[in-house]
Amino acid sequence: MDTYCTIRDVTDRLTIEPDKDDKRLIVAMVDEAMVAIDAYLGKHFDESVPAAVRVVCARVAARAVSRGLSSAPVGAESQSFTAGPFSTSQSFGSNSNAGGVFLTAEDKRMLRSVRGGRRGAFTVSLY
């Protein structure tokens, strides 16, 4: 199966520099991102992947990879430490999940152009 984005597309969006051993994680997150995108769109692209799909796939995978490579606990959005007298803090937000991929509202907005079909509220005349 072809992928919607390349490893380079993902690494260009990372906030952490991956090691060469992190390639397996990147490939796995691209696969998961493709499944999430296919489920949202209700279709799969075998050839000529639209630019919006490529960008969203790379963004989704990069978010998941960044969480996987981070030293913070899975799902933590922020951490703080204090040296004396020894304090620590972690916060978990609404977008924190168990380390899997997810589509944000912005991702879904970007995918609407390739989703096809009419979606949303509309009126049907009955006469």
As a percent range, the share of strand residues is 5-15%
Distance between the termini: 48 Å
The beta-strand count equals 2
Main beta-sheet annotation: 2 strands, antiparallel
Strand order of the largest sheet: 1-2
The residue ranges in which pLDDT falls below 50 over 5 or more consecutive positions are: none
State the share of residues found in helices, binned by percent: 40-55%
Order of helices and strands: HHHEEH
Please state the overall shape, judged from the principal axes of the Cα atoms.
Answer: flat
Averaged pLDDT = 82
Q: How many separate helices?
A: 4
Structural class category? mainly alpha
What would you report as the Rg, rounded to the nearest angstrom? Answer: 18 Å
Pfam family, one: Phage_Gp19
Protein name: Phage Gp19/Gp15/Gp42 family protein
Structure summarized in a few sentences:
By secondary structure, this protein is mainly alpha-helical. It contains 4 helices and 2 strands, in the order αααββα. The mean pLDDT is 82.
